[in-house]
Amino acid sequence: MKAKLEQLGIIISYSRPAVSNDNAFSESLFGSMKTRKQYPRQEFKDIEETREWVLSFVYWYNNEHRHSGIKYVTPAQRHQGIDGNILAKRKEVYRVAKLTFPERWNT
C-alpha cells in the first residue's frame, strides 16, 4: 500500500487525531463542512445520501463559497485564472467610490 501511494505521489501523513496543527487544511475543511447551515443534524440514512450531500458541499465550496484566504474569490475562479480580473474590477470600484465619497475614508 505504501509503495502504491508513493508511486502515485501521495504524501503519507502520520498526523495525530484532533491535533489541528498536524493537519490544518483538513481540519479547516471539516470545520467549514460542519458549521454549514445545511449540515445534517442527524445521521445520513445510507451511503448514497452521504455521497449526495458531500458532492453538493464540494460543489458549493469550490464554485460558490468566497474564501477569505484568497481575497474572497472562489477556488474555481482562482484555478481558472480569472481571479485577477475579478480583483482588478473590485479595485477599480473601490477607487471610484473613494473619489466619489472621500469623506468615507480617513486618509
TrEMBL record:
Stretches assigned to the Integrase catalytic domain: 9-75
Biological process terms in GO annotation: DNA integration
Gene Ontology MF terms in the entry: nucleic acid binding
Taxonomic superkingdom: Bacteria
Organism: Thorsellia anophelis DSM 18579
Classification via InterPro entries: Integrase_cat-core, RNaseH-like_sf, RNaseH_sf, Transposase_IS3/IS150/IS904
The protein, known as: Integrase core domain-containing protein
